[in-house]
Amino acid sequence: MSKDERVEANKVKEKKLEANLPGRYHDHTFHLYEGERLDDMVESIIEHGVLTPVIVHKVKGRYEMLSGHNRANAAKIAGMSEVPAIVKYGLTEQEAYVYVIER
Fold first, then answer.
1. How many alpha carbons fall within 13 Å on the CB side of residue 24?
2. 22 CB-contact burial (10 Å; exposed 0-12 / middle 13-18 / buried 19+)
3. CATH classification at residue 79
4. Crossing angle of the two packed helices 69-77 and 35-48, in degrees rounded to 10
């Protein structure tokens, strides 16, 4: 990890909801909210915004979603083009996977 990446680690930044965000971490299967649960989250985001940042991992110049898939999906439905995100740098495969399974 470079000095600049260490300085930037764990800061909350606004990240665009691009085609690769949210991305699936190594095709990990998870289920996005549907129905009333999704509707409630969308309404909350419209009213309050995204209160908890998503967590992404920067790999080869792209961002891979580790945690916050439902928040990102609901934000997109709510018409947001960006969400608050914490960018993790230099994680091992095992460290990244912990964020995926401990969401």
1. 7
2. buried
3. 3.90.1530.30
4. 70
> Bridge-partner residues for 86, per DSSP?
12, 55
Cβ–Cβ < 8 Å for 10, 52: no
Distance CA 99, CA 103 (A): 6
Single pTM value for the model: 0.76
**How many separate domains does the chain show?**
1
Which pLDDT tens digit goes with each residue over 57-103? 887 777 888 888 899 999 999 999 889 999 888 888 888 888 888 76
Quick one: 38 exposed, middle or buried, by C-beta within 10 A (0-12, 13-18, 19+)?
middle
In DSSP terms, 56 is beta-bridged to 65, 87
Residue range(s) defining the domain that contains residue 27: 3-101
